[in-house]
Amino acid sequence: MAEGLSQDRDSKTAPGGQKAPESSEHGKSSQWTLTLGSIGVVYGDIGTSPLYALRESLVHTQSVGIGEYDVLGVVSLLLWALFLIVTLKYVIFLMRADNRGEGGTLALMALAQGALGRRSTPVLMIGIVGASLFSGDAIITPAISVLSAVEGLKLVTPFFDPYVLPITFVILITLFFVQSRGTGRVATFFGPIMVVWFLSIALMGLSHIGDAPRILYAFNPLHGVRFLFAHGMLSFVVLGSVFLAVTGAEALYADMGHFGRRPIQIAWTGFVLPALILNYLGQGALILHTPSAIENPFFLMAPQWALLPLVLLATLATVIASQATITGAFSLARQAIQLGLLPRLEIQHTSDTQEGQIFIPRVNRILLIGVLLLVAMFKTSSSLASAYGIAVTASMVVDSCLAFVVVWRLWKWPLWGAFGVMGGFLAIEGVFFSANLVKVLDGGWVPVLIGSTMVLMMWTWMRGSGFLERKTHRDSIPMRDLIRMLQKSKPTRVPGTAVFLTSDPEVAPSALMHNLKHNKVLHERVLIVSVKTEDTPRVGAKNRYEIEQLSEDFTRVTLHFGFMESPRVPVALANLRKAGLKFDIMTTSFFLGRRTIKASPTSGMPGWQDGLFIALSRQSANATDFFSIPSDRVVELGAQVTV
């Protein structure tokens, strides 16, 4: 999932810095530009699956001997997985369920919440599980993709055998190191490189179909069904590897907001899907003709002179696939922060002109450490394949569950119709999910552990924040009562404007109370500002703010932001001048409360969860940076609170 955000919900910004509204509003040239961009950003993961998907699917049958019908059956399963899951579910059906043009698990969760008309706890928890599982995918994808590409060097010459892991480490460390510089310039080259990649794998496959033309029988789904019934439990294990061919399918939906529905659909049906089909058919034909090619059918399709260039191209393609996953993790983390599922982490903007170019240092470090540990633990892409798939299948099940709510309640389908369509998808994905569970002991525990950890963290942060908010509200003075008290006590007034940020606009901010208690002064104009995140990706300029005049010198302002926007408070306040709000950054002081949280035996949470919540709160970024407030205009006042 790459990111691209703007302040207006009606516009999108592609990773390369291009505006990407709905494709219907574009001319042909713009639509083709967006289609090219989608090939580079959306299809990196699924586009590099041929490196290992067929190989890993067939390797399980080696113990019983690989026959012609086994090859036909596995290739048939691969093709029909692409048809049913990617094409039918995501490209044709699910991309219609957009949240103001945006897709992805959290966007779908917000859409389902809106369809129900309330904040449904089951829907919220399903969304949290889906978002958490993506974190496991974000760590495994760079590891398996880059490692599988570099392993091709061993076919060039055995000399490279001992250097596969060191080269992989260097590539991955470099990839994560350059994240802080932004991906805008690099993204410009993603499309053309991936076009070359897909053309290359299509031509490679096409050149080998003639080795065994009977591979075309794989289009008949009966070959896949026959394979499943013929091999019993073994076929169940094979299905877990077959699913590797569709990992990355959720990116079609998640990146819809960056390129528009139409360009992504055109790229898939007209270019990416045919290239993948030809390559899998070519690999299957090569194995039928030369059974020993099962060792690494993808690279063995290339002539010897083209092997090294192909390895280099594959490495570039896997780096692009990894880049899309990393930036997707940044985007998802920001959404989770805005929705109150994670603490306020530091978010750096790597572009002065494009809202979507962001970098989250803490997330980047965690991803890098996780990816390097995986490569060191598993050492080969074949071993890593055992860990891959569980998180993705579970994410797809989550999408189907949330989509059921949207289809039934928002689209007003009859219950039997919604259940029939989404139940069909759930049945297919349930089989794949069950097949991937077989791999838990062989490495599948990794994404399960990562996802479970993220669920625990999000649940703890939400629960602790709720307790803290209720306690703060209970112990605070209502804002209107304070204004009446100040009208009687008449504190010393000083020139200028004071802005007090608060999460609860109904009560007096702690920073305001501390300023009155210790400094015994009050500015001539006081703004009580709260930031509210909506269940939409973006909020238009007309709906950005609410202004309420509490008294002659007290004004309450509520700023509304979408869950894919960064809350730049000074910019939003400056835009309120048109509404008559007097705001001059040079005569304004921002008062922020810095809370130190202590555990309490009466918090309502067990001791271990108190400790986890406090540890998470310490990771929160400075509010000055998070809300993009100039540091020389900020006054911070600290306080201790118990939870």
Structural account:
This protein has two domains: 28-108 and 135-340 and 353-380; 476-642, no CATH class. The chain has helices at 28-41, 44-47, 53-59, 68-93, 105-116, 121-150, 153-156, 164-177, 184-209, 221-231, 233-242, 250-254, 256-259, 261-289, 297-300, 307-338, 361-378, 381-385, 390-410, 415-437, 440-475, 479-489, 510-519, 569-574, 607-617, 623-626, and strands spanning 348-349, 358-359, 492-501, 521-533, 545-549, 554-561, 588-598, 634-642. It is of the alpha/beta class and 643 residues long. The chain has 26 helices and eight strands. Helix 5 runs antiparallel to helix 6 (121-150) and helix 11 (233-242) packs across helix 20. The strands form two sheets. A six-stranded mixed sheet has the order 5-6-4-3-7-8, covered by helices on one side. A two-stranded antiparallel sheet has the order 1-2. It is elongated.
Key descriptive features of the protein:
643 residues, alpha/beta, 2 domains, 6-stranded mixed sheet, two-stranded antiparallel ribbon, 8 strands
Helix-and-strand structural type = alpha/beta
- The percent of residues in helical segments reads 55-70%
User: What is the radius of gyration computed over CA atoms, rounded to a whole number of angstroms?
Assistant: 27 Å
Q: Quote the average pLDDT.
A: 85
What is the total tally of β strands? 8
Intertermini distance: 36 Å
The biggest beta sheet is recorded as: 6 strands, mixed
- Spans of at least 5 consecutive residues whose pLDDT stays below 50 are 1-27
Strand order of the largest sheet: 5-6-4-3-7-8
Global outline: elongated
How many structural domains can be distinguished in the coordinates?
2
Percentage of residues in strands: 5-15%
Helical segment tally? 26
